[in-house]
Design brief:
mainly alpha, 50 helices, globular
Amino acid sequence: MLKKVVLILTSLLGSGTLVPGQGSISEIEKMLGSDDFEIRREAMETLWKEGKISLEVLERLSRGSDPEIKARALSLHRKLLLGLSPETPQEIMDLLDKYFSASVNGKVSLFNSLKSRREYGLMLRLRSIERDERVLERMDETVAEVLPKVQLSLLRGGDLDQAKELLLLNDDYRSLIAYAGLCDHLGQLDGEIGRLRQLTDEKSKARYLACLRVKGDPAILRAEADRLGDRHAVMVASLAMGDVVPLFEYLDEEGSLSLVEGYYLDWIRAEKTGDKDRMERQLASIRHHVTNSSESFEARSSLLKMGMLDEVLRGYANDFVDESRYFFLLGQDRDIEALKLIGLDEATLNDEWIKGVYERTLERFRVEGDVEPYFEYFYAASFLESRGMVSEATTCIENYFDAAREARDSRMYDWYQRSFSFAPRASLVALDREVKKFDVEVEVLLSSIYGESDGVEWLKVKLLDRADNRPSLEVLQLVASFYGEPMVPVDFFEGVERRFREESLAEQDPEVGLKHLLDFANNRGEGSDILLYCRLLKEAEFGLNPLFEAEHLAYQERYEEAAKLYADSNYLQSPSATPSMVYRAGVVLNKIGDPFGEAYLKKGILLSQGAADSLGYFAKHHFRAGEYEKSRKFYRAALLRMERVDSGDDSNLRSIIEGALSGAIQERNWSFAVALSELESWALKQASDVYLIRGRFQVLFCRGMLAAEEGQMEEALRNLRKAHGLIPRDGVLADDFFPALREAGLVELHDELFEKSAELLRENVRFFSKDHNAKNTFGWLASRANRCLDEAEGYLKMSLEVRPLSEAYLDTMAEIYFAKGNRKKAVEWSDRAANRNSSDFQLRQQNRRFRNDPFPLK
């Protein structure tokens, strides 16, 4: 009888999958419901082994009236849904049998045991048939953890069909974008868009819009998202088209804003429509909260984002206890006012001030014990040192140490470390006094500043060699020089480093010394030294990550050498290779026309699964390589793939907006820049006062340039003057503001505003005659404005006498020569700047500009 059952079922299934409408279903029902147990069991086994009966048939059988047939059909239906087969291990079968009769906690526990067995596909299929929301919620936590790993493994293995099938099992946003990205990679995106457009279920609609995001046409995305009611997609698409209004409308309606945020948002919307009465009402509400609410910080920040600079400054407390006022003035380059806030009328210390601050500091130490004492000395030291007044800064720090000692404060080594972070040059002189006068050990001082790292320990041994008998100050300054900018004459430091290098090479095990020297060079960012130590380590046949060297070769545009290291690297084929690193290799290989370059680019995109943050990294790689249009393209694509743009605390969104805004300004796409600047300014929440004001400056600048482009000159001049008035001393004006004004033909306005800035900066230079940074700021603005170039060059020569290796100063000198039309000298100075910090892609961008671009407009 059993043989007959098998024969019948095999013949029924032999010609294909059994579907409804075939007369053989009644035969299956008869056998599944037979009185003979063996016939029922064998019928079940045969159907399962053949696996050709349709799920629809089994679903129909499971709804019948016969409980025996229903139970067996349901069991078989589940097995087929879960992809089980007779080859499935019995332990998995047993686990699943328990699952369907388990409690909520039992189901979750059994589900997680599938994770430990790496049964990821089965986990996803099991999740797809679960209906209990309590179980699903906890399942999703586990799935969110494992799905990316499974997906990435399939993509690395080239199993793209299975990867696509896997993505269809999940409908979270990340998976939808990954699915669309995979369709794009396979050349199936247009077909999938056409197919999904015809479907009406909610999941298909979401998948359809994800595909449109990847397709990258914001106009189509906005129209379709509007038709289907996806407001977040509408906001993203609108932003990409230069329209921030839908976002602000949503924020207003959504209802999660604080009172102050609501007032500020309404003020923005009123400003955009020119409703001055409404603006005044919202401004009055915000002013009320500055002094009468727990939301005073938020209210003050909103005023800054509205450009109410002087009002906020007046609102700060007038004594030094309010640090915000002090840092606000510093950020505005209002140095003379900041100095007066410290209590000094002249750029020099006086005995009365020193004594008064000493008494206040001592009182704080004695009264508050474990509370941080008044940092007035440290702020003054930082201020004075940064303006070239190192001896005055040293006096401040020495007095602070003396006050702590007199109060018998137990945290002296904490103050040693803190002083270095405020004023490193002055701090080292003050610390040397601690060594000589109070018997503090140099070794302990170094550990308190730099920690107990192997590198510091190695330097201690080298620099405290008794045979050298180095003065303690020299030891402190040399250690600081290895970590950053030289604190001793450059020639002297280079001589010490050369000696340590030669001693390391002469040792039996040169690897230790060379690796420490490489780490120090990497800390300093000095490209030529980094590559020198890479070469020496390779010549000594010591292990070195080839991608580290390749990256630094690429920074210096030595693409042939970098490409060889990338091509030979096994890491790029390993499971740990990140999409960003694979894509970076593709960019470099493409630079030399290597056919593998395109393959790596495609692989990087594939492994990224279309994620917005990865596209942001790809944009940066293209920018570093000087491929600016490609960089802008990836930033725009990344923006379209952001799930939502209404969250101001999303770091990925902020990074993408910042990159896209910079690109929009560079290509003078002012309508896009206006929308991005308005969003960026809105999203600034925990930023410092300086950045809040700069955000408002950027909005007004972009609005002004858009108005000029559209011929609305009255509005253009009004906005551009307002923008300049917010930050008249700020070096940010040099980046784009002055060049853009000249390009737009607004030369008269340009000269008017530059002269205002120049005179304010000259005032700082006159008041702080040793301030090398003030001289550099003047030089930077003058060079980018292409005005007062001889004066700027004179200032920069003085700055470079004090800080000869400052990459910022070197770059400014290059800019001055470029403005003068001397390309050769501009490139020479720029080469030095770019080498000082080889990973700074803006310095590299400058270097390319000096080599290739036309000279700036007069």
